[in-house]
């Protein structure tokens, strides 16, 4: 894998369905949101366009510490050009652009003070496929590495040995949900003093509520990156999952390993028992989503902007979240704590 110039440049420049009644599926104002979408790579891989012209046109795209000979070699690199050609063939239609127009129309509706970003698409030569979206909220800029969405069965992903659980969210229809994730990382407030497991779950839940609002016609599977079977599993086992978290004294714990076990993408969530391989990854994020939905059910007059800023502990407490326990056989590895259950009750 080549040195990741793209991410380094952008990072330094930017300083890096909810039920039967969908409260988010609102009628938008007549004024349309105009998006400016520029394909940087069309110019970059067009060698008839001089490098000086490119650097003048897209100064944020180039690292001045990198010699121009490196950029010229990259413009002619066989793999880079092949990936770019694949991107051009894959995105002959503008479906993803329509998705983004709708997304940002809702974004402007719910957050009228936020900037509608200038969007730049590019081909990263497979360097940024794991983090294909960079959103600069203050700068009003959004970068999309289009080679991060070539389709789960892309031969490039197979050659790069990208894990199947990651490749399954690298399709063209995953662009809009991934953009919402990037927006969520910017606008959902981070409180370093509230980092218990339930705080982290609710934080992730807030980002998924954002997806509910900005993508009201998109399926829950796409919003969280699950298959239909994985979503069905989560729904069927919701009560048992929550009961496991309670009995294992996890809810108010500051154990940093829970983030990797239950919140980050993975082939499955790590329950450390025989059940885990049946589960989808990020099950803690899914539970946080349900907590947030329950809280919003209890507070129907709250605006999205107010909700995003709301205290995570207050959301948990006032959600009155208590899913019904099922018949799942979740064996314990620790003794249940009465104190933990009492906090929950």
Outline the secondary-structure elements.
Layout: H1 5-14, E1 37-39, H2 40-44, H3 51-57, H4 68-76, H5 78-90, H6 95-110, E2 118-122, E3 133-136, E4 141-145, H7 155-159, H8 164-167, H9 175-187, H10 197-214, H11 220-224, H12 228-236, H13 238-247, H14 257-263, H15 283-298, H16 304-309, H17 312-319, H18 338-344
Parallel strand pairs: 1-2, 2-4
Antiparallel strand pairs: 3-4
Helix pairs in contact: 6-9, 9-10, 10-15, 10-17, 15-17
Notes on the structure:
The chain has 345 residues and is mainly alpha-helical. The chain has two domains: 5-187, no CATH class; 197-344, no CATH class. It has 18 helices and four strands. Strands 1-2-4-3 form a four-stranded mixed β-sheet, sandwiched between helices. Strand 3 and strand 4 (141-145) form a beta hairpin.
């Amino acid at each position: 894998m080549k040195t990741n110039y793209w991410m380094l440049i952008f990072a330094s420049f930017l300083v890096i369905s909810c039920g039967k009644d969908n409260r988010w599926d609102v009628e938008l104002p007549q004024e349309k949101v105009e998006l400016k979408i520029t394909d940087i790579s069309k110019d970059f891989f067009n060698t008839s366009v001089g490098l000086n012209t490119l650097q003048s046109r897209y100064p944020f795209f180039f690292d001045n510490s990198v010699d121009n000979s490196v950029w010229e070699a990259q413009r002619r690199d066989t793999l880079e050009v092949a990936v770019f050609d694949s991107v051009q063939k894959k995105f002959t239609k503008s479906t993803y652009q329509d998705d983004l127009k709708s997304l940002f129309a809702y974004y402007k509706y719910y957050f009228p003070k936020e900037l509608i970003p200038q969007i730049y698409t590019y081909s990263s030569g497979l360097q940024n496929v794991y983090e294909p979206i960079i959103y600069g909220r203050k700068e009003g800029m959004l970068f999309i590495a289009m080679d991060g969405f070539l389709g789960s069965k892309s031969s490039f992903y197979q050659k790069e040995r990208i894990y199947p659980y990651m490749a399954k969210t690298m399709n063209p229809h995953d662009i809009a949900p991934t953009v919402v994730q990037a927006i969520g990382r910017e606008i959902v407030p981070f409180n370093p003093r509230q980092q218990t497991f339930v705080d982290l779950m609710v934080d992730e839940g807030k980002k998924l509520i954002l997806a509910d609002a900005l993508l009201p016609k998109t399926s829950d599977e796409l919003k969280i990156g699950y298959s239909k079977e994985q979503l069905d599993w989560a729904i069927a086992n919701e009560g048992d999952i929550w009961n496991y978290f309670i009995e294992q004294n996890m809810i108010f714990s500051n154990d940093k390993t829970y983030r990797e076990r239950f919140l980050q993408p993975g082939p499955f969530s790590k329950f450390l028992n025989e059940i885990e391989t049946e589960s989808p990854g990020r099950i803690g994020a899914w539970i946080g989503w349900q907590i947030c939905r329950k809280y919003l059910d209890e507070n129907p007059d709250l605006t999205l902007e107010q909700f995003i800023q709301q205290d995570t502990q207050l959301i948990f407490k006032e959600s009155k979240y208590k899913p019904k326990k099922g018949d799942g056989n979740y064996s314990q590895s620790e003794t249940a704590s009465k104190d933990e259950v009492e906090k929950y009750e």
